[in-house]
Specification:
Length: 195
């Protein structure tokens, strides 16, 4: 209750021009996650797509800190490669447990589409529906999010242990209904090769 009152009082003290350039925690929209090898315990590449809020203060710059919180039990310490809209990340701030933070390698205006790719993330050992949290720190008191992504699924390992990390082939890696298939055939729902 006190934080809300302080925020309202503080906002009332700022000139209108200052408020116009603040993102003020507005959420991202259309946050989606695709995991290229979505099985428990395996290394995977996470592809995150989102849209920046369309307000004046909601832009990315090369001093903007992007933070991603992955599902509990995910391990990111081996992650050394990442891209934002195809531009390599070169300034990592944190890579530990299930949390990553890095500086944006490019400038994007408000309302832009953002595509983040992160390689060598070890999936959580718990199968099921999972989400990530995406947020951006633009300045000392200006942020976007945090925003929950749409849920994605981590599947149980086949044969009781982690599956070898392989890159699924396209377009055979999806059955007729759009379900991802296992590399040897089958999906979480049915056998893709025998349907």
């Amino acid at each position: 209750m006190h934080a809300l009152v302080v925020a309202i009082v503080f906002a009332g003290l700022l000139p209108a021009a200052a408020l116009a350039y603040s993102c003020a925690g507005r959420p991202f929209s259309e946050v989606r996650v695709f995991v290229d090898f979505p099985y428990v315990g395996n290394l995977a590449q996470y592809s995150i797509s989102a849209r920046l809020p369309g307000f004046a203060g909601c832009r990315l710059s090369t001093s903007t800190e992007i933070a991603v919180v992955l599902p509990l039990g995910t391990e990111v310490s081996a992650t050394t490669q990442g891209w934002v809209n195809g531009v390599p990340v070169s300034a990592w701030i944190a890579r530990e447990h299930d949390r990553l933070a890095f500086l944006s390698p490019l400038v994007l205006p408000p309302g832009s589409s953002v595509s983040i790719a992160l390689r060598d993330i070890r999936n959580t050992w718990g199968a099921g529906a999972r989400v990530i949290v995406l947020s951006v720190l633009i300045g000392d008191s200006n942020r976007m999010g945090p925003t929950l992504a749409a849920a994605f699924t981590i599947f149980p390992a086949v044969g009781g242990g982690p599956m070898p990390t392989v890159v699924p082939e396209s377009p055979r890696d999806v059955d007729a209904q759009g379900y991802r298939c296992l590399p040897e055939g089958g999906s979480a729902r049915a056998n893709c090769l025998l349907e």
